[in-house]
Design brief:
The structure is a single chain. By secondary structure, the protein is an alpha/beta fold. It is 42% helix and 15% strand. The strands form 5 sheets. A 7-stranded mixed beta sheet has the order 4-12-11-10-9-5-6, with helices on both faces. A 4-stranded antiparallel beta sheet has the order 13-14-17-16, with helices on one face. A hairpin with a 2-residue loop joins strand 7 and strand 8. Residues 70-80 have low confidence and may be disordered.
């Protein structure tokens, strides 16, 4: 093992033991090199190794800082936080929905129906018909025969990436993107290329200027983390550019049900767009079922990827979801969640008045650009000491560019009262200084 890795191991142990605290700035590399009697280049490799492991974050012009919490293996932000108030991951579950879902389970308790649901993988015509009606929005209804089922949304993403982008090839992603995609791409040997954005979303010229890509992964509706929805004129420009470059699109529509007035990109480019969705946000995180609407050119490749990756949906989960889709329960809960998201954004707007926040008033998350006297990593650590888990903006970036001085707040998990109290605490924290919030 090379010396720089041994030194990185020592610093990693100090971070995990708390001897180096979250948000703490590491010495400048030259000073660190002198203190260890090593070359400047070796110090740079040590710091680079800590960043690679997710234990530190580098900010151009500011230095290298210990992360708010040493994350586990990528992808990040996939499990609920153990903090008292979780604003890091969205798990919207309405208080009344358990009773609504229970009614739909009654049929599955019949021995004959249950026996069929315990058999190997399925995907009946009835399931596809029900899914097509559930996924329909703004005049777009997918063809039922084009719908494939995955175990969950993350598995649908993995299958789509595997079907579209061979190992060693490039996938274009927005410069701020869903962190899980980074982990999936690394596992599949896919290189991510960050693409520049503006206030309307992905820039068409970023596609043209990028190195050769095999496909593009986008979140055009209620983008996570920025909350934006790409307007019609920009969608038309993107589709035109994608056709010129012969690029295929993987459209993540997991939050699309909250904006049923916006059609997917597939309405403009059905021949090159794979639409992905899931039940986790529509119903509950424990009710996992993923959807992939594939154009004919990709249907067989996507089906093969689902099978070979063991990402296909389980029969019982599919049958239960089909019942909830067919009897209208899923649609009813979706409408209730649209109202719930609006109320949570109202609470957010009231608590964070005066701050720079980007959000859709119908979304379940927001992007908070912090005051200049705070750094995102330090703010995340200070929030954790208050018992509130939030996500630093760096978790959503691709590449080694400057980490944004922002945090993403997931608003969907706590009760309305708890959300209000937590946001009020965070607002008070942001108005103070890091010195005020430092532990004694």
């Amino acid at each position: 093992m090379e010396d720089y890795r041994l030194i990185a191991d020592q610093l990693a142990a100090d971070i995990r033991a708390g001897r180096l605290r979250p948000g703490e700035r590491l010495p400048p590399q030259r000073r660190f090199a002198r203190s260890r009697d090593i070359a400047d280049s070796t110090a740079a490799r040590v710091y680079g190794e800590l960043i690679r492991r997710g234990l530190a974050v580098g900010e151009v012009g500011r230095g290298t800082f210990v992360r708010a919490a040493p994350p586990g293996p990528q992808p990040m932000l996939t499990e609920p936080s153990e903090a008292r108030v979780d604003l890091e991951v969205n798990f919207p579950v309405l208080p009344e929905q358990a009773e609504m879902l229970a009614a739909g389970m009654a049929r599955l308790q019949r021995p004959d129906v249950l026996a069929a649901s315990l058999r190997p993988l399925g995907g009946s015509a009835a399931a596809r018909e029900a899914a097509a009606l559930l996924l329909a929005r703004a005049g777009w209804t997918p063809e039922p025969e084009r719908i494939l089922f995955a175990g969950n949304g993350r598995q649908a993403i993995a299958a789509a990436l595997a079907a579209c982008v061979p190992a060693g090839e490039r996938l274009g992603v927005e410069e701020y993107t869903y962190p899980v995609v980074k982990g999936i791409a690394a596992h599949l040997g896919i290189t991510l290329v960050p693409l520049a954005m503006d206030e309307d979303g992905l820039l068409p010229e970023a596609l043209a200027d990028a190195p050769p890509l095999r496909a593009v992964y986008l979140q055009p509706t209620l983008h996570n983390p920025l909350g934006m929805t790409i307007p019609p004129h920009r969608r038309a420009q993107l589709v035109e550019t994608m056709r010129e470059l012969d690029l295929h699109v993987i459209e993540d529509a997991i939050y699309g049900f909250l904006r049923d007035d916006v059609p997917p990109l597939a309405t403009l480019a059905p021949e090159r767009t794979i639409v992905l969705d899931s039940m986790s946000k529509r119903l509950a995180p424990g009710l996992t079922l993923g959807f992939a609407v594939a154009p004919p050119a990709f249907e067989q490749r996507l089906a093969s990827a689902l099978r070979s990756g063991a990402w296909s949906a389980g029969r019982f989960a599919l049958d239960a979801a089909t019942q909830w889709m067919a009897d209208g329960t899923a649609a009813t809960i979706g409408r209730a969640k649209r109202a719930d998201a609006v109320e949570r954004q109202r609470i957010r707007a009231e608590s964070l008045t005066g701050f720079t926040v980007r959000a859709d008033p119908r979304g379940y998350h927001c992007w908070w650009e912090l005051p200049d006297h705070w750094r995102a990593e330090t703010f995340v650590a200070a929030a954790a000491r208050l018992g509130i888990a939030i996500a630093p903006g760096a978790a959503f970036t691709v590449g080694t560019g400057r980490a944004p001085n922002a945090v993403r707040l997931a608003l969907g998990t706590p009760s309305h009262r708890t959300l209000s109290d937590a946001l009020d605490l965070l607002a008070g924290l942001a108005r103070g200084t890091p010195e005020d919030a430092a532990p004694e």
